């Protein structure tokens, strides 16, 4: 009985996950686009990344957040964001080794949330559900009238 009730809340759970991840990504991505500093470029270079990756990360995080929030192209957006978090863990947050989990637990949790959305999808409370059917076929197709 409880499991059936919880299954009924799945759309709200996916909506909450998308909204929270969108908030996190826009909080971290928007400053990379609007308040870009030499310090941000230096931070990326210090960790072995090209300085232009600041802008790439800012665009991916800000626009990816928007896509997650409305639930449009959720699977590819979430997959790209999960991959970005994996790179951040690898290049920035795990410099003291994989066993120092406390240094990368936040980006790991964000990456896991994105991986869930990439595999499960946005749910029925999303633009993806309004536009696409299962199997990726466009739902909004004009029906022919029969005479």
What can you tell me about this protein's structure?
This protein has helices spanning 2-8, 10-34, 38-46, 53-70, 74-93, 105-120, 127-131. The chain is an all-alpha fold. The chain has one domain (12-130). Helix 2 crosses helix 6 (105-120). The longest helix is centred in the first third of the chain and has 25 residues, at 10-34. The radius of gyration is 19 Å and the shape is globular. The mean pLDDT is 91.
Brief descriptors of the model:
147 residues, 7 helices, mainly alpha
In terms of per-residue confidence, which ranges show pLDDT below 50 for 5 or more consecutive residues?
none
**Shape verdict:** globular
> Number of DSSP strands?
0
* Helix/strand order: HHHHHHH
Fraction of residues in helices?
55-70%
The count of helical stretches stands at: 7
Cα-to-Cα separation, first versus last residue: 48 Å
Largest sheet: none
**Overall residue-averaged pLDDT value:** 91
Radius of gyration: 19 Å
β-strand percent reads: under 5%
SS-based class: mainly alpha
How many structural units, i.e. domains?
A: 1
Oligomer classification: single chain
